[in-house]
Amino acid sequence: MMNESKLFKGMVVGALAGAGMSLLDRATREDVKYKLKTVSSDVKYYSKNREDLRMKLQETADKLQTVYNQFSQDAQYLSGKVEELKTLTPQVKTLVVDTKEAFEHSKEEYKTIVKDEEDEFTMPVLPEHVYEEKKFS
Q1: Helix axis angle, 26-48 relative to 50-120, nearest 10°?
Q2: Total of domains in the chain
């Protein structure tokens, strides 16, 4: 229990020391002053105009609800597509295998057809005397 207390105190002291060190930089100090003034003026304004604060909070809540609804719809749509893909994958795999087999079978048939046609259209062997050189006298 004592160690947890020291840990927490050490973290707080470290955070304060870090914040103090960062305030040594002039630009950081100016930025912190500006933000404090802005927050202070916002607090004063909304403390006097609570209806504006309520409307602003409602607008923000509505925007967050819209984003949530859109995200939810997108998640459902994607989930549906993933399920579709899971069911289609085996079908596509089967289709690809069947197509490959059909092409392989057709390839063999084409070879047979081409070979048969080549055999039909081969040049006839002419007798040797056709090739003899004719001499003109």
Answers
A1: 110
A2: 1
User: Hey, what are 30's tokens?
Assistant: 């100016």
Query: 86-114: per-residue pLDDT in tens?
Result: 888 888 888 888 888 888 877 777 777 76
Residue 1, both tokens: 């229990």
pLDDT at 23: 87
> Is 13 part of a structural domain of the chain?
no
pLDDT value of position 109: 77
Distance (Å, rounded) from C-alpha 65 to C-alpha 83? 27
Phi, psi of 113 (to 5 degrees): -65, -45
By three-state DSSP, how is residue 109 classified? helix
What residue has token string 């994607």?
A: 78
